[in-house]
Design goal:
This protein has 3 helices and 4 strands, in the order αββββαα. With 129 residues, it is α+β, with helices and mostly antiparallel strands. The chain has one domain. The chain has a 4-stranded antiparallel β-sheet with strand order 1-2-3-4, covered by helices on one side.
Length: 129
């Protein structure tokens, strides 16, 4: 017999409210969004002119089967014809940098302090014995 946590699917109402809140954040920046459904899954779509042959399209939909309502985001962008390769790479790098997790803030001396603390604890424990 296997025991463990059984993932409860997210309600459609909860997913709808969550995507509506995301849409409102875009709208607050003057970006037009469109909420629709593909089957039972709500989808938030943004289409912006790109200067290229196709608009930049971003689709956001929740993973209804996962806890915490993670969002899946697809970004489609066609560079302007003749755009230099470096400019293409720079645009993609900017997106990647924006979505990467931020490293923990480094505090100078933190390693030394924690190392000194653990040495002090070891000396303290050795004295008790």
């Amino acid at each position: 017999m296997t025991t463990g946590h059984i993932t409860q699917p997210v309600s459609r109402n909860q997913a709808d409210r969550h995507l509506a809140a995301v849409a409102a954040a875009f709208t607050g920046h003057g970006i037009v969004t469109h909420l629709s459904r593909i089957g039972d899954v709500p989808v938030l779509t943004i289409e912006e002119p790109s200067g290229g042959p196709e608009p930049t399209t971003i689709s956001i939909n929740p993973d209804l089967s996962a806890r915490g309502l993670p969002l899946e985001c697809t970004f489609l962008w066609t560079p302007v014809p003749g755009m230099p390769p470096k400019a293409i790479a720079d645009a993609i790098i900017a997106v990647l940098n924006a979505v990467r997790p931020r490293p923990a803030m480094h505090r100078p001396g933190a390693e030394e302090a924690s190392s000194d603390d653990s040495r002090a604890r070891c000396r303290s424990q050795a004295r008790r014995r």
